[in-house]
Amino acid sequence: MCYFRWLLGFLHLLVWGSIILVHAIPAPDPVQCNRTICTLSNSYGAWGDRKDCSVKSVVYPTTEEELRSAVAHANKNKLKVKVVSKFSHTIPKLACPSSLGHDSLLISTAKYDSGIEIDSVNLAVTADAGVALRDVIDKVEEAGLSLVAAPYWEGVSVAGMISTGAHGSSWWGKGGAVHDHVIGLSMIVPGNESEGYAKVKQIGAQDQLLNAAKVSLGILGVISKVKLSLERGFKRSITYNFTNDSSIENNFMEHGKKYEFGDITWYPSKHTAVYRYDSRVPMDTPGDGINDFLGFQSNEILISKSVRASEELFESTKSVNGECTLADTTLWYKKQIGNGLKNNGKIFTGYPVVGRQGKMQTSGSCLYSPKTRIDASCAWDPRIKGLFFYESTAIFTATKFGDFIKDVKKLRDLKPENFCGIDHYNGFLIRYIKASKAYLGQSEDSIVVDFNYYRADEASTPRLNQDVMEEVEQMAFFKYGARPHWAKNRNLAFLKVQSKYLNFNKFIAVKKQLDPENMLSSEWSDEILFGKEGVGSDGCALEGLCICSEDRHCSPSKGYFCKPGLVYSEARVCRYSPSSSNL
């Protein structure tokens, strides 16, 4: 048994942290078509409800005029229309135009991805909607400039990135949310017959429409170009401090104020907090480091499949010790190799790691590959049966976050090993977002918490310690009123979301103005935007499609019953019990 545990730990070490230079197979195209119908998937291979998204046809415009023509065609023919990029990393079904399929058009910006214009005088960059974030960053850095904010994952298009509120981490300057660095955009909206059924609307920095358009969820219009503010080029210096988590609820506020790009990763089962000391430094500071985050590196397919098989074994045998072995190994190895930081672009040799902003602000090396390499991929590539997980992301008012941490600690202290299933992914990633004028942005300085956890291959299969994850999830969104990240989360996180945004009605007013016929809306986007509660079907709570109120919403045949939370007693969670009368 000891050897078996060691082997599994070693496999997990490799999947997250191999320093062998591995390149991944290209990511799958999110749109697949046969002779009769097309199907849209996200990069994880499954939507929240696990149902396919079928569309009648797909178009691939290459210019703004072709994009306008596609919108006009949809409007003239009364088709539902949505837009998808070549990445499709959104977890909710925002990009699915209709459940019917036959009355829909999908517009892909995969080929509308070449236009990047740098304005060095006015410190701005304008990019076509489908341009990849990495391409924008590289072009900007070549001009001696820097884009200040970016999400940690670079596999996004510029339009998709701002539309869903993607962010990095910062309370400084304009903040960590990319949309708060938008100073203009072009959006194609439905028009009348005399306008050719669609028109390009230019929205500038002083236009009130920008507050609605820069986080629009794709339901106001089709973004064609995005203009972002820049700064003179700079470098960053990063150090990770692995320490005890005893004061995290008292330290997080000061940490965000002290470090421009700081974050904290919390591993509750290990009683460990990792403080990221991350600040800008002058361009003449020595160092040519890069941030190649472990979770976004290429992984040997065999290893990814082996780790998934280990997870499935631990789940089926309810082996908490197995999950904790993975958590121990992951945390130890991250510490040894600086979580993917590389001083000279190849290996980690010690702190601080200093590098240009464009090499430190985001990562995603598993996206890139020579066409000849077929034995490695991103760990979650659905074609290989690798990692398959949920991602919950809650955005807290900063003044409430300390009490949330205290509650999670109370839950953790009941049985710390129950958090190993979160910790062997990436624990709780804590980041900072500044107050925004965007109607669907954050109205006050906020804290963002991300945590990932195992998702079963079958919707009807319960998860080990799933009641713990569910209690944390409900504690965040309902006890503390956290707001869900628009591009992540299970459906229940969006319940009553409209009441959490002060300017929600202003956004709806703009929606009615720009798309009065709801051409760009669908039952899926309405479900998210209006926080509609799902139907209470058998097993619905297992996938986060509902909050359980009856045992049948869990899996009583497999010993999972609907129970109150252990710390947040108003929570209703699916807990493994010998009978429904027991805790």
From TrEMBL:
EC number: 1.1.3.8
Pathway in which this enzyme or protein is active: Cofactor biosynthesis; L-ascorbate biosynthesis
Single GO MF annotation: L-gulonolactone oxidase activity
UniProt cross-references to InterPro entries, sorted A to Z: ALO_C, FAD-bd_PCMH, FAD-bd_PCMH-like_sf, FAD-bd_PCMH_sub2, FAD-linked_Oxidoreductases_BP, GULLO2-like_C, GULO_Plant, Oxid_FAD_bind_N
SUPFAM superfamilies, per database record: FAD-binding/transporter-associated domain-like (SSF56176)
Record keywords: Ascorbate biosynthesis, FAD, Flavoprotein, Oxidoreductase, Signal
Domain FAD-binding PCMH-type: 51-233
Cofactor(s) named in the record: FAD
GO CC term (a single one): membrane
Signal peptide boundaries: 1-24
UniProt-listed GO biological process terms: L-ascorbic acid biosynthetic process
Gene3D superfamilies: 3.30.465.10, 3.30.70.2520
Catalyzed reactions per annotation: L-gulono-1,4-lactone + O2 = L-ascorbate + H2O2 + H(+)
UniProt similarity note: Belongs to the oxygen-dependent FAD-linked oxidoreductase family.
Protein name: L-gulonolactone oxidase
Species of origin: Gossypium aridum
Source species taxonomy: Eukaryota, Viridiplantae, Streptophyta, Embryophyta, Tracheophyta
